[in-house]
Design a protein that fits this description.
The protein has one helix at 7-33, and strands at residues 44-45, 61-66, 69-77, 80-82, 85-89, 93-100, 105-109, 115-118, 122-129, 134-139, 152-158. The chain has 159 residues and is of the alpha+beta class. The strands form 2 sheets. Strands 1, 2, 3, 4, 6 and 9 form a 6-stranded mixed sheet that branches. The longest helix is centred in the first third of the chain and has 27 residues, at 7-33. The chain is elongated, with a radius of gyration of 22 Å. The chain binds dinuclear copper ion.
Length: 159
């Protein structure tokens, strides 16, 4: 079947298939050698219907758990976060523990590498230290419905 194919077509077919193989190789090598996988840190599961009535999400907020260490227990929902303002001192180590009450939401804190996916029924955990004082806006970055664009809050890092 390839004999009567124009030469140019063969060349483009080779480039096309070659690109596909290179793409799959890059993805495969990165996943295996560098651990580049879908988001993790959400191993703990919780009944989605119970998230706001059972611990720890029945008691959301910021809690001091050490000399300069805080735990933020946060719930996301259509269309907001509870709490939506977090105040912590500069240099504090902050452990985020989050989930969603309804659909898939996200949390990205501007100016930080913090970029989380919040899945109903999964507890997402992440630790971050805020070194610079200031106000950090956070937003939902997973399209979650008609009010997606009003889903935001802020972290206030005090000097
Ligand atoms: Cu929540 Cu978009």
């Amino acid at each position: 079947m390839f004999e009567d194919m124009p030469k140019l077509e063969k060349i483009w077919l080779t480039i096309g298939i070659g690109s596909l193989i290179i793409f799959l190789l890059i993805t495969g090598v990165l996943a295996v050698s560098m651990g580049l996988n879908p988001p993790d840190g959400m191993e703990t599961t919780i009944e989605p219907e119970l998230v706001d009535t059972a611990p720890p999400f029945d008691n959301t907020g910021v809690e001091k758990i050490g000399p300069n260490e805080y735990e933020v227990t946060m719930l996301s929902f259509m269309f907001g976060y509870d709490p939506n303002t977090i105040t912590i001192p500069k240099g504090a180590k902050v452990h985020f523990k989050m989930t969603s009450k309804d659909v898939l939401h996200g949390l990205h804190i501007a100016g930080t590498p913090l970029n989380l996916m919040l899945q109903p029924g999964r507890v997402t955990e992440y630790t971050h230290t805020f070194k610079e004082p200031g106000e950090y806006l956070f937003v939902c970055h997973e399209y979650c419905g008609i009010g997606h664009q009003v889903m935001y809050g802020k972290v206030i890092v005090e000097d």
